[in-house]
Amino acid sequence: MKSRILYTCMLVGVFLRSSVGQNTAPEAVLNCCEGYVLFLLDSSGSISSYEYSRMLSFLSELLLPFSLGKGQVRIGLLQVGTQPRLEFGFDAHNTQTSLQRALGNTKALRGDTNTEEALRMAKDWVLRPDGAGEPRSKLPRVLVWVTDGVKPGDVIGPMENLREEGVAVLVVSTGHGNYQVLRQVVTPPVESHLYFVDIDDMSIITEDLRNAMIEILRADRLQVRDISTDSAVLQWRPVLAGLNGYYEIRFGPVSSTSGGGGRPGTSPSTSGGQYQRLIESKDSSTARLTGLMPDTTYTATLTPESNLQVLKPISVTFNTKPDVLSPAVVTVSESEANSVRVSWGPLQLESVQRFQVEYSALPGGKLHTAAVGRGQNSTVLSNLQPDTQYLVTVIAQHYSGREKAMSVKVCTEEVRPALADLQLTTVGSNSLQVDWKASVDSLRGYWLTWEGQDGHGSTTAPRSSLYLPPNSLSTRLTHMPPATRVCVSPVYRTARGEGLCCTAKFNSDALAWGQRS
Description:
Subcellular location: Secreted, Extracellular space, Extracellular matrix, Basement membrane
CATH class of the largest domain: Alpha Beta
Pfam family, one: fn3
Shape: elongated
Protein name: von Willebrand factor A domain-containing protein 1
CATH architecture of the largest domain: 3-Layer(aba) Sandwich
GO cellular component, one term: basement membrane
Distance between the termini: 134 Å
CATH topology of the largest domain: Rossmann fold
Function: Promotes matrix assembly. Involved in the organization of skeletal muscles and in the formation of neuromuscular junctions.
Number of helices: 8
Largest sheet: 6 strands, mixed
Radius of gyration: 44 Å
Number of strands: 28
Number of domains: 4
């Protein structure tokens, strides 16, 4: 008889060990979530050993499907007793095997139910927004309080402080807790964040509580990148990794007017506009949307389809870029008397067949044409007339058959010949005859300056100036200092031309001479 009892116990022991082993590897790993979850576990003297073991089993089953670690879900366990203790923090476990082993080795604290001190630790240390290594305020933070509800203490104020800092509070009560108190501490909605359950029936709330956590921790990361005029790339978190299923993507333009419930072939998410549908494999995390219209607002909806998990669709709205055909900008540089450089952009090698530049003098000049390869974004126009305004047009011929032209006006530089010659002749003891030679074409006049100098070239008298009309080729200056430097520059429409300077010195022997300098 004893041997039969012993044999039976051995079988039961083997069965229990096998059951625990099965919980170390989940059938499907939830890759849907990211954030911090701190469990506030009541392990005071009011919790029996049996109740405590049931609570740990509940946590083990609840957390089994989640992916753990950086970029996933971080789990912490804070036990409530006379002296609350952080059993393990958020960085302790990055795998389910490690977490499940830690839960199996956790021992109750016993003693009083010092929930107030535990909440202070949670607020000031464990769940603070600026956690070590990374700011936690950017990710969801969740506090799950598992208690029998016996003598919880003054928890309303501390829980309110946590909620004000962005922490979502969920409560599981296994005893006869005060409903009015507990409903005040949880984050709305109460119906999905507050649970009353018998200690032997905790498994019936596992899925509901897990879904409530997922709703908070869910990483809705449907992002749009590489947006162009007619395409965009969707990128999402691979929430179906480890599951069977696929992704359905629907996208279409947002209607400018509000639509109804959607017509056949339309999607309500696009306000009645035509939509397209894509199917991507469960291992995909990106999809290229093509055939889009330029400068249009689109809505894209990603729906993960799986027979193992119910995952809600997520949506994103984005705008395609305007249809900018080259040339979008034309600029002018290196302008000279007979040439100018014209530049344009963008090149758009994928769509432009060739460029053509047309130019003519204004008004009514002869039209000239220059063909330019599609790989060039500038050309030099030569053999132009000086000081002339031109109309320059850059034309892009696209493979699609479309043609885009943009024009700009440009002025060539005027020719400004230098002064050809300058002669100074002394007249008497203090007068100078100034004679010069210059091209009279396009001249607007002459600018004369003179100043007295000593024998070393330093100025001894203030500089004087005089403007003369274009038909003047000489002038006489009187009351000059013994040594005088004279400069003459031709004046044109846009600027002065290059001039000449001479220095004259008065003495009794010199009658006529000029010294250039």
